[in-house]
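Reviewers of the previous submission asked for a worked example of the structure-prediction workflow described in the proposal, so we include one complete record here. The input consisted solely of the amino acid sequence. No template or homolog information was supplied to the procedure at any stage.
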Amino acid sequence: MAERGEDETGLDRHLAVLGDHGARIGWLGPPEQLRRRGERRRRNGRLAAAASGLAVVAVLAGVYATQTVPSTEPEPLASASASASASPPASPSPSPSVVVPKVDPSALPGVPTRDQAVWLQATTTGGYPLLTALSDGTLSAAAEDAATDAALFALAPVSPGAKQYQLKTGKVGSGGEPGCAVRDGDRLAITACDAASEQQRVVLNGRAAPYEVVLGGRALKLTGTGVTAVAPGQGTPLTFIVRGRAEDPFG
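From that input alone, the workflow returned the following structure tokens.
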């Protein structure tokens, strides 16, 4: 503190000398004025240094805050492509089963003659079912390996050259005569032949085998479990396969 006082005394003395000299030449003000200017410069210098120190402290505090305060921004969501790649691949759809048409050397390309005993077989349907007659007189379907004489039929024109037929059994019954297929509502059966009955009339849709067989105005639809009467155009294409000679005393 003593040294500081001595410095200020010496400074005052120098300022006084400098002030007298300036007063003589007209450049400087009196010593008291020079002293006040010096004090202002020193005070302004101390204020500037303090402000600089505060600025440095503020900058350091900001850096510390940005490093220590946890981020409040939400985590980015996974992209759609990443989610899609993480999901398991879809299983391929099973392809529909394809039925290979049955080829039989005894199959007819057209309409059988009335003396031929034939199978009516669904050669483009799975299992290749046959039209057959049951013991109760109804029509149904049977597998080829289970076929009997009840699966034999003959196609007889209602008149010579006609395009309408009766579908007769290939074997005669107990009365010595064949029976004929008939549609009675939704029921398909075998009954006594009557050439005048519209319900016994058979029409073949198609230019060549296999044909859609229409009985009494309804088409025959064969499956592995039986036969039904459906609208024409929805029936099962049937192929005539020769299996011998038909028994018909009137043929």
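DSSP finds three helices and twelve strands in the chain. We consider this example representative of the routine output the project will generate in years two and three.
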